[in-house]
Specification:
About 30% of the residues lie in helices and about 20% in strands. It has about 210 residues and is α+β, with helices and mostly antiparallel strands. The protein has a seven-stranded mixed β-sheet, with helices on one face. Strands 6-9 form a two-stranded antiparallel ribbon. The longest helix has 21 residues, at about 1-20. The two termini are about 35 Å apart.
């Protein structure tokens, strides 16, 4: 019995460390936080940063990917969001954070192919080190962060889902991103600041 207690005392912390390694604790940005800049490769092989955006009032940062059925279901809606809000100062910045070793379908090469097939009008960036996803605290695809911009600084205004129906666009009754941006454009505070992101878990590097 004594040996079992000693073994348990050694194994439990080890399992806890392993669990945290494969399931990063969400300690990322919260609503109201200022975000740091990033510099990631777009599917056109150019580097894109928040600081490099011009004439914008903010950004719709969406962690997404190629293979996840939830991300696929949202692709047309993400395209529509960019077309609606880019001219109003809120472009979509799509970021793929998945480990391509675990999910070959999410490789940079496949990202280029997908962007061409769907004619993405927005940038589609590769978070190869997963540092940006960890910094933001993203855990799913898709996972959205609406940012506002003031004097060159970006602040988190909304975190969560795109809308309230991941699989049936015609059944959507609450459009969280649209509501948040419309309120910002009207000079109002965002009333719904957080919702639960629904989608596939991010595939972290081992």
């Amino acid at each position: 019995m004594k040996n079992i207690r000693i073994l348990s005392a050694w194994l439990l912390p080890a399992f806890a460390i392993l669990f945290m390694a494969f399931n990063p604790v969400n300690t990322g940005y919260k609503v109201g936080d200022k975000v740091s800049d990033f510099n990631l490769k777009n599917v056109d092989k150019k580097m894109i940063s928040l600081s490099g955006l011009q004439n914008n009032k903010g950004a719709i940062v969406i962690f997404t990917c190629n293979h996840c059925p939830f991300s696929i279901a949202y692709e047309d809606r993400i395209i529509a969001l960019h077309k609606k809000y880019e001219s109003l100062g809120y472009p979509v910045i799509a970021i793929n954070p998945n480990d391509e070793v675990k999910v070959p379908e999410d490789s940079f090469k496949k990202m280029i192919k997908r962007a061409k097939e769907k004619k993405f009008p927005f940038v589609y960036l590769h978070d190869a080190t997963q540092e940006v996803a960890r910094t933001y605290g993203a855990v799913r695809t898709p996972h959205v962060y609406v940012l506002s911009k003031s004097e060159g600084n970006y602040t988190v205004e909304y975190i969560g889902a795109i809308d309230n129906n991941s699989q049936e666009p015609e059944a959507v009754t609450e459009r969280y991103i649209e509501k948040a941006i419309d309120e910002l454009l009207e000079g109002k505070k965002v009333t719904t600041t957080t919702t639960k992101a629904i989608g596939c878990t991010i595939k972290w590097k081992s």
